[in-house]
Amino acid sequence: MLRRLFLHGLFGLSAVLVAGTEDRVADLMARMTLEEKISQLVQCSSNDELTGPRGERSPLMAEIRAGRVGSLLNVVGARETRRMQEAAVTGSRLHIPLLFGLDVIHGFRTTFPVNLGQAASWDLAAIERAERVAAIEASAAGVHWTFAPMVDIARDPRWGRISEGAGEDPFLGSAVAKARVRGFQGDLSGPTHILACAKHFAAYGAAQAGRDYWTTEVPEITLRDTYLPPFKAAAEVGVATFMCAFNDLNGVPCSGNRWLLDQVLRKEWGFQGIVVSDWGSIAEMVPHGLAADLKEAARLAALAGVDMDMEGQAYLKHLPELVRAGVVPMAQVDRMVKAVLEAKAKLGLFENPYKYCDEAREQRDMLRPEHLEAARDLARKSFVLLKHDPAVLPLRAGARVALVGPLADAARDQLGMWEAKGRPEDAVTLKAALEARLPGLVVTAPGCAVSEASRDEFASALKAAAQADVIVAALGESWDMTGEGHSRSKLDLPGSQQALLEALKATGKPVVLVLFAGRPLTLEAVLPQADAVLYAWQPGTMGGPALADVLLGDVSPSGKLPATFPRNVGQIPLYYNTKPGGRPQPAGPREQYRSNYLDTPNTPLFPFGFGLSYTRFAYTDARLSSPEMGLDGRLTVQATLRNLGDREGDEVAQLYVRDLVGSVTRPVRELKGFQRVRVPKGGQVALSFELRASDLAFTHTDGSFAPEAGRFQVFLGGDANAPLVGEFTLRAQ
Ligand code: NOJ
After folding, report:
1. What is the crossing angle of helices 124-140 and 369-382, to 10°?
2. Rounded to whole angstroms, how far apart are CA atoms 612 and 390?
3. How many Cβ atoms from other residues are within 10 Å of residue 646's Cβ?
4. CA–CA separation, 159 vs 167, rounded Å?
5. 620 — phi, psi (to 5°)?
6. What mean pLDDT comes out for the span 609-615?
7. What is the pLDDT of residues 303-350, one digit of tens each?
């Protein structure tokens, strides 16, 4: 009889296991040969879709039938996954089902905004809903396991993968990580629940100079307080799997990093799920220079605790001999295999290996109206208004619009990097949406291509502008300028776009700039050339209608930046929660012998958390409930948020804290709370944040994690430059 047991894990969260799972797994393992066990640790990619460099390989179907594969990636579709599952279940000796994995990064068929844009919504419920939709669609196409969420903190917008994460802040990043895991996994009991994967463990986003796959050197305190929190948060809500990162971390590549994978992840955090390598990352320990050959790489990875070898040959070729020679203990292999089999059992694949291969559901569940509505809602909330002239935006009813720029009608670019099964033909572009809303009033001309130097098409754009009352310029990056392996050293508008913008501005017509990009761009030269600037990220399938909703004023923009926008590349890395330094530059003109530049200010162009609205908000009556708290205490921060304008709007109120003196120097500000609230026109909302002493903990030089008694400042407002509310003392007891 199947009985459900709710096992409360280390963090008090429930994992659902079917009673009998352990017996089934133990029974199976008792009957498996060493080779059969190791086969469970092998993951191969389909030959049709590759997401990394491919080495030599024998035919996939033959491998599956021979029971030499435990998991596949990049195989999608109810019919295709069923075909392969049948081969595994009927062909292999022990009939063990396969696990199908895919990069479902920001939607499956319904494409949501790129993840950095999603984070700009600061709307955890909407983000969780997006992943629920992604899981419903992906699971209907046979996918059991998504290689998401990517929870890497990124402080360098040159790094192309900044678009896949939640930006620079560990507090926001942790909250988003939890929401995404919950959305994908649910309680892992139903046919729409899929395994999530916290990746890339760890500090992959700290790649030197923002160059993908490159070396990272991160002190342990920074690792623990900045880069690891979103991973720990994912573990706390029961993420089923982790992926280790490609990078060399302080001299030990993550795939062989025993401290990281064993000491921190398994021993300190109690993680019991699968750790999968990144694509070929075990073998990459050879070029890294940590292993002399593939066999040594296999040994290092197995002993560190990498359970599954993604698209590599290290385990298949070398683990059997390493175990037979006693170099890798059998007990270690058993633990690895158990993690894989338990994941299969948790999904119910032993009862029904075809649970996710439902062609009828696959037909039914893609692009459902509620999925498209969720995508439109999240896109609207992700847009960040960087510059505003109320005379220009929202667009006036009846205004004739010149819609100019290479991204006005660029369905593929609108989807962004890593679109899974998202299709350009499903996407509604800005042009299509504006024309539908403003029949006969929109004239369109691309003006130039995204990255080319040519100005040949400027004339047609200027002609369109001459016929219009207002210019809407759709500029920015193409979809393939961010994502894996797509770092940039310059972050200005590519090609001739800046020149096009200047030519448009020179017409004297009002210019509304809509910027599409997967990362923060450097906008110092751009801002003076537009009257209003809306940052649209890469907004996905419903990006066009969502933009029309905002441009036409149905909804006020409410997104806030999840990453600092630098003035220029030379300022990078630039992030708000920086250390104060011994010679800080005071506000005001540059001072000699202070930490600053000769040629640019220290301040960003836009701080973390920044975003304007069509209305105006004021924070009043801000106060602390007490001037002190004890080490196990708490206090509240209260304020009234007033909407001073004549229209409804959403505001993301942000609470920051500064620990003035610490045994380890403390950041100038740290985000400790946020609330997204809707305020009616002329209305007000009472804000209340609770601050506990444990929220003030940090890592000390001896490795302990605790708050320290002393003075703290509290700031509350609409971005990382929020004004001071007051100070309190944390007492020693
Ligand atoms: C490499 C990427 O780093 C990782 O994020 C992805 O999941 C795998 N390739 C599989 O596509």
Report:
1. 140
2. 11
3. 10
4. 11
5. -125, 165
6. 98
7. 999 999 999 999 999 999 999 999 999 999 999 999 999 999 999 999
User: Whose alpha carbon is nearest atom 3 of ligand 1?
Assistant: 278
Question: Which of 279, 310, 311 is the pocket-test mutation for ligand 1 (most atoms within 8 Å of CB)?
Answer: 279
Closest CA to 244 of 210, 271, 208: 271
> Which atom of ligand 1 lies closest to the CA of 147?
7
Terminal-to-terminal C-alpha distance of the chain: 52
Same fold, 368-571 and 617-730: no
- Average pLDDT for residues 272-277, to the nearest whole number? 98
The Cα-based distances of 367 to 108, 370, 376, 418, 423 in angstroms read 9, 8, 12, 18, 11
Enumerate residues 6+ apart whose C-beta is below 8 A from 589. Answer: none
Q: Tokens for 75?
A: 């195989």
User: Is 199 near ligand 1, meaning CB less than 6 Å away?
Assistant: yes
104 contacts 366 by C-beta, under 8 angstroms? no
Q: Is 278 in the pocket of ligand 1 (CB under 6 A)?
A: yes
Instruction: Measure 363 CA to ligand 1 centroid, in angstroms.
Output: 27
Domain boundaries along the sequence of the chain:
368-571, 617-730
Rounded to the nearest angstrom, the distance between the alpha carbon of 536 and the centre of ligand 1 is 25
Distance between CA 218 and CA 203 in Å, rounded? 8
pTM over 0.85: yes
| DSSP structural state of residue 216 | B
Atom of ligand 1 minimally distant from the CA of 52: 9
Q: Which atom of ligand 1 is nearest to the CA of 199?
A: 5
Which residues are tagged catalytic? 278
Candidate CATH numbers 3.30.565.10, 3.40.718.10, 2.60.40.10, 3.20.20.70; the one for domain 617-730: 2.60.40.10
CATH architecture of 368-571: 3-Layer(aba) Sandwich (3.40)
